[in-house]
Design goal:
By secondary structure, the protein is an alpha/beta fold. It has five helices and five strands. It holds the Pfam family Response_reg.
């Protein structure tokens, strides 16, 4: 196994648990946070390789976390995949401009997560 790490950030416990199962299945050690502030503190404690980040959360939303993380940790680490129900193209552009490597629409499944993690550089492409 590997020691790749991923932080799952979502205010929904159900979404965090579903994402954890999928991402652990891809070989990652997963930690969870329920909002952007908690996620920022988790990143300061131990910077993960990747972050699966919800957009709409209380306390600190995903885009605010994304900008704060990029300002504090730089443009490439951790690799951030923004996950949301927001389908508008302008929102996708906003996420990518703020520093997300990839973008996932909810609901997602294991195949979608694997594909987006490959595109974000978190996984080697499947043979």
């Amino acid at each position: 196994m590997t020691d790749r790490t991923c932080l799952v950030v979502d205010d929904s416990l159900v979404v965090r648990k579903a994402a954890r199962r999928i991402i652990e299945g891809l070989g990652f050690t997963v930690t969870e946070a329920k909002d952007g502030q908690e996620a920022l503190e988790a990143c300061r404690a131990r910077l993960p390789d990747g972050v699966l980040l919800d957009w709409n959360m209380p306390v600190m939303d995903g885009i605010t976390f994304l900008r704060a993380a990029r300002a504090e940790f730089g443009p490439d680490h951790p690799r951030i995949v923004l996950c949301t129900t927001e389908a508008e193209f302008a929102r996708i552009v906003q996420a990518l401009e703020a520093g997300a490597q990839e973008y996932v629409m909810k609901p997602f499944d294991a195949e979608i997560i694997r594909d987006k993690f490959e595109q974000a550089g978190l996984l080697e492409p499947a043979a």
